[in-house]
C-alpha cells in the first residue's frame, strides 16, 4: 500500500466546476418548461441567441487575453449566465436586446474584472439592469399567457417577431399583446401596481383577466417550477439553504406585515412569493457563489436584505419588480457583510 | 524649448487632468453626452484655465502665501463669469444645454490645481502654455468621450454642432447609423463612467507597451550582502 502525503483539505466533494454549472442549468429546466408552456417558444429562441453570443464573446476575450479558450468555455459558467439572462427577459424582445445583454454580461461585467471568480457583480443581473434602463419599452413588453391572446402565434411567427419586429401577417408585439377582450395586458406585478396607483383595491385589480383568482396566470407555475429546481439544488448540495431561505423569509415577513397593515393595497404574501422573479432570484440568481456573501451568517443577512429591497421596490419604487436591482445593490455590500460575519477561527478570539 | 515640450507632454498625456489626475470629473461625466456639449465645456474650461494661469502667474509675487487660495479662487470665478456671459451672449443654445455646469467650472479642481501647483511658481509665458496644454488635454478627453457616447447612444456625430459654431455647422452632423431605439445607457451617467474607465484602461495599455519597448537600464552588480544584525 502506498502512503500518499497531501496537504489539507483531505476530503473532497469531487464536484468539478463544470459539473456544478451543469447541475444548475439542469435545475432551471422545470421553470423553463413552465415559461415555454405559458409564454411560448420565444424563450427557446432567446436561449439559443444568448448561448451563441456568450460563447463567441467568451472565446474572443480569451483569445485577446491569450488564455486557452476551451477551459473557460467548458466550465459552463458563461452558459449559465446566458440561461439566466434568457429566462429573465421578455420572450418576444427583439434579437439585439439579448445579444447586447449577453455581450455586456461576459465582456464588461465578467471578463474585464478578470474572469470567473473575480466579478464583483452577478453578470446576468448587471446585463439585465443595463437592458432595462437602456431599452425600457422592449424590456417591459411581456406577453400575457398564450391562452389569453386574441392572436395566438406559432413558432415561425415568434421567430419573425424577434428578428423583424412583425409577424408575417404584420402584427407588431404591441398588437399581439392585446388579449381576447381587446385590452393590452401587462404583467401581474405591473397591473397591481398601476391599479393601486389609480386608487383601486387589490381585489378589484385582481378581476383582470391575467389573474387566476389570486395569482397571475402562468406566473405562479413558472415560480413553482423554479422552486422545484431550487429545492433540487439544495438537495444536491450545489447551493446552501441560507440565501434562498433568507430571501423568501424576508419577502414573506415583509409582505405579511404589509398585508396586515393595509389589506386593500397590499397583494399579500403568496402573491409576492409566486410573482415575477422571486423564486428564480432566490434560488438561482442570489446564490451565485462568486458575487454572494461567503459565510453562513453573512448569507442569511445577504438574502434577507435582498428580500427586503425586493419588497420595498415592488411596493414603493418605480419598477414593478426588483430582483436584479436588489441583487446588484447587495453585491456591493458583500465585502462589508463578509467582514462583519467572519467566523471565529478555532482556538482564537474567544470572548473574554 | 525642452521646457515647452515637457509641458506639452505633461498636459496631453503624462499628467492629463482627466485620465491621470482624474480631476474635474463632475463636468466630464455630466456633459459628455454629445461632442458639441463636450467641446463647448472643454473650450470654456480651456479659456478659464489659460486666463487664470496667466493672471495668477502675474500676481504671484504680490499675493501673501497665507491667503493665496481665496485670491486664486476669486480670479478663477472672475474668468468663469466672463466665459459664462460670453456663452450666454453668443452661443445661447449651448449655454442652455450646459446649464449649471458652466458656473461649476469654478469648482473644477483641475484649474485650482494648476494655479497652485504651477502658475503660482512659474513665469507668465510658461504658465500660459501650461494652461493651454492642460486645458487641451482635458478637452481632448472630453471630446473623445463625447464622441463615444454620442456614437453608441444615438448613432450620430456632431449632433447640434450649430449651437456651438453657428448655423453653418449644422452640415457637420453625421448620421453614422440609425436605429429606432436610443441606447440610453451610453447617454445616461453609467455610460460616462464606463467610457472613462475604458479610456483610462486604454491609456494604461499604451503606457505599458511603451515601457515594454524601452530597454531596461542595466542593473549595477552588487556584491553579496553580509548579514551583520542579530547574529547571536
UniProtKB/TrEMBL annotation, chain A:
InterPro entries registered for this protein in UniProt: NqrB/RnfD, RnfD_bac
UniProt keyword annotation of Zinc-finger present: no
E.C. code: 7.-.-.-
Keywords: Cell inner membrane, Cell membrane, Electron transport, Flavoprotein, FMN, Membrane, Phosphoprotein, Translocase, Transmembrane, Transmembrane helix, Transport
Bilayer-crossing regions: 20-38, 44-64, 95-113, 125-145, 214-234, 241-262, 268-287, 299-316, 322-340
Assembly mode: The complex is composed of six subunits: RnfA, RnfB, RnfC, RnfD, RnfE and RnfG.
Annotated protein name in UniProt: Ion-translocating oxidoreductase complex subunit D
Organism expressing this protein natively: Pseudoalteromonas neustonica
UniProtKB/TrEMBL annotation, chain B:
Functional description taken from the UniProt entry: Part of a membrane-bound complex that couples electron transfer with translocation of ions across the membrane.
Subunit text: The complex is composed of six subunits: RnfA, RnfB, RnfC, RnfD, RnfE and RnfG.
InterPro entries membership: NqrDE/RnfAE (IPR003667), RnfE (IPR010968)
Family: Belongs to the NqrDE/RnfAE family.
UniProt-recorded name of the protein: Ion-translocating oxidoreductase complex subunit E
Transmembrane parts of this sequence: 40-59, 71-87, 93-112, 124-148, 183-202
Lineage per the UniProt record: Bacteria, Pseudomonadati, Pseudomonadota, Gammaproteobacteria, Alteromonadales
Gene name per UniProt: rnfE
Source organism per UniProt: Pseudoalteromonas rhizosphaerae
Annotated keywords: Cell inner membrane, Cell membrane, Electron transport, Membrane, Translocase, Transmembrane, Transmembrane helix, Transport
Localization per record: Cell inner membrane; Endomembrane system
